[in-house]
Design brief:
The protein has helices at residues 28-58, 68-93, 97-100, 102-135, 140-143, 146-169, 188-230, 235-273, 278-305, 308-320; strands at 23-24, 94-95. It is mostly helical.
Length: 341
């Protein structure tokens, strides 16, 4: 009989014989590859979002109400990298009473649920904010105030924390059940909560599509009205460029959201309804979770780097850190530390 052990095969039957031991779920080689696979993502999440926060601090032009949600999103993504991602790796790679018993396993998954829900809610709030600024530009400064934005941020955190903690009020009746081998079961209440979270993701995607479609429609109306008022044929190329830029922005935002979060919906359905092996399960989990964590890496690029003022702020921060050389003392030096208040 072939005695070769697949790298995906658990190292021992500790989940049955040695429940008090802490062991690797897979071979040492697979565990190292798994961690190395996540390291670049972890670094990019932390670096990119810290850069956003520091740019907001260093560059006074960014300290505006319309950027509060972006900074809160960056803080959420930083917490995702610092807390949620390592906790998820511990759950996926270790067999131990804390990570494998039904009574304690959810504690490691809770940060991912809270921060992921908060990140998604921030994306929707940012889209609503942009829609307001474009649809009602004159009313926007009076409608969106610092106090109201802070209240919205607090509500986002409160709602997502409450929803994420609901399964704690409906624990698995078999608290000593060992769930690391893929044989865990959900009680009825937890299933309802899990399904709600799962199918809310396509709903959020639909909301993003509708909001950005409204913004495109309003933007195209403004372009058409401007062309009628100016009656300049030279504006045709510029208008076409503006339309194209708006379409590309919508495609990037919606496409990135779909690519990062729809796999999570599919994974949750797979976990609840499919009969599978541990190897297939860990493959599906790894792909979908990597995609969802990648959203925290992409957010600074979409909402920060594509913004001109944030690009200037990034340059100032990187110059202060010694990563970029100052361009000199000329008046057009955007990366001068004199921009800091």
């Amino acid at each position: 009989m072939n005695s070769t052990i697949s790298p995906w095969t658990p190292n021992s039957t500790s989940d049955q014989l040695y429940p008090n031991d802490v062991t690797l779920r897979f071979s040492t080689y697979t565990t190292v590859v798994y961690v190395v696979f996540y390291l670049p993502l972890w670094f990019c999440i932390i670096f990119g979002n810290v850069l956003v926060v520091c740019a907001f601090w260093y560059y006074r032009e960014l300290r505006k109400v319309q950027n509060y949600l972006l900074i809160s999103l960056a803080v959420t993504d930083i917490l995702t990298g610092i807390i949620a991602l390592p906790a998820m790796l511990v759950v996926r790679l270790l067999n131990s009473p804390l990570t494998c018993f039904a009574s304690t396993r959810f504690n490691f998954l809770l940060p991912t649920i809270v921060f992921s829900g908060s990140s998604i809610s921030h994306l929707i709030a940012i889209a609503v904010d942009r829609c307001f600024s474009l649809t009602w530009p004159l009313k926007y400064p009076h409608l969106v105030t610092a106090r109201r934005v802070i209240v919205v941020i607090a509500i986002i955190w409160m709602i997502n924390t409450t929803l994420a903690c609901l399964p704690l009020y409906y624990p698995n009746p078999d608290i000593d059940q060992w769930v690391c081998a893929g044989n865990g079961t959900y009680n009825t209440e937890a299933n309802v909560i899990f399904l709600f979270i799962t199918f809310s993701l396509p709903f959020f995607l639909l909301c993003l599509i509708v909001l950005y479609a409204i913004m495109l429609r309003v933007a195209f109306k403004h372009i058409k009205k401007r062309r009628e008022l100016t009656n300049h044929t030279d504006d045709t190329a510029r208008d076409a460029e503006s339309r194209w830029r708006g379409i590309v922005t919508m495609a990037v935002v919606v496409g990135a959201f779909a690519a990062c979060w729809i796999p999570t919906t599919l994974k949750n359905c797979y976990e609840m309804f499919a009969t599978t092996t541990e190897k297939k399960l860990i493959t599906v989990q790894t792909f979908s979770e990597y995609a969802s964590f990648a959203n925290s890496m992409i957010n600074p690029i979409i909402y920060g780097y594509l913004n001109r003022n944030f690009k200037i702020g990034f340059g100032i921060v990187l110059t202060a850190w010694g990563c970029l050389k100052a361009k000199g003392t000329s008046g057009d030096n955007h990366f001068s530390l004199s921009e800091r208040s």
